Amino acid sequence: MSTSNLIAMKKVVQQLRFEASINRVKVSQAAADLQQFCVQNALHDPLLTGVSSSTNPFRPQKVCSFL
Amino acid sequence: ILFIFEQYFCHIVLSPLIPEMATQEVQLNETLAHLKSESESLKSKLEEERAKLHDVELHQVAEKVEGLGQFVMKTRRTLKGHGNKVLCMDWCKDKRRIVSSSQDGKVIVWDAFTTNKEHAVTMPCTWVMACAYAPSGCAVACGGLDNKCSVYPLSLDKNENLAAKKKSVAMHTNYLSACSFTNSDMQILTSSGDGTCALWDVESGQLLQSFHGHAADVLCLDLAPSETGNTFVSGGCDKKANVWDMRSGQCIQSFETHESDINSVRYYPSGDAFASGSDDATCRLYDLRADREVAIYSKESIIFGVSSVDFSLSGRLLFGGYNDYTINVWDVLKGTRVSILFGHENRVSTLRVSPDGTAFSTGSWDHTLRIWA
Fold first, then answer.
1. Do B315 and A37 touch (CB under 8 A)?
2. pTM across the whole model
3. How far apart, in whole angstroms, are the C-alpha atoms of residue B344 and residue B129?
4. Suppose B260 and one of A19, B57, B134, B279 were both cysteines; which one would form an S-S bond, judging by CB atoms 3.0 to 4.6 Å apart?
């Protein structure tokens, strides 16, 4: 019973050592990059810019006819 | 104290009989105690390292960005046909077809433009919690309480019995919560109530890699955008979101800031971050390079859990489907809510933005799917 606890604990420590060792960037840098991506791609985002009825297949041009 | 007691007790019981065993027991317990303290100190070190880089908040950096105007998004199509709660849906790469699955075991393929049903299959189990469209558009995968993920090739012949060609691919020891094809029709990634995720070869049904690390049911997963490489993120009932290396099976990053089950995870379009939605009524954004949570999307008035999240194409908008029947639309950079959408008459259980970003679809416990644009 103690041996399996030991094995499990060793895995936990190994995993934590690995996670502690990764390279990180400052939030200011990461945030700036996220923002830049948004801004660069804003014009290509139909839900953001709201495409006109003629180009969005889900917003058909309204032509009503009574059958 | 527990270790010392155990050590003492073992010494009393075993030493008259087998002296070597008693010594070994003592050594094991000492090593265990040593490892425990190392894990505690590593955890604090991790927190320290993450805190050092927390020099600013995302919304502060975003102060200079232009605010978003009013959004007019409405239901443009309603897909009716399921006889019970819709649990999951996925878009086809052709941007018009959708596969959806429900509590009554039905899986339906729709043409979202015309609202026509193109295929329907009845699974042998109820609660089909997961479904996914193959990249080729030629097959769908689904599963749920049957603990499996099965692939159904879609026939051009509408009269053909889809169930006849069904292929069982994944086998878990508890319910299937989510599934996704990788960038081809040949491999499927699954997550399960058994606490694991797994990668399978579709043709042979062989298990290629398994991912262990969650301490409870895994509820969701999302693959990184293909440019970023072979990783995926999973979220579970242990409140953790884990990022995994698909080849090695190793967990490379782990985030635990939610206060309840994580129902949905979705990568930011650049692949550098991911969003999560939880029963704690918040959505959060985690940046992978900063290795921390960088935003929380919440309001005091929002008290119901988030079932499903997805980003608009540029990553500026985050759509969240909630258990209070609404959809909240968030400005990802500024952290504010820009819109709230009504329409469903029961919980929103699933939400996905279309591949070309022109619309998003929601599925609900009210038995319908809605397309919004």
1. yes
2. 0.90
3. 19
4. B279
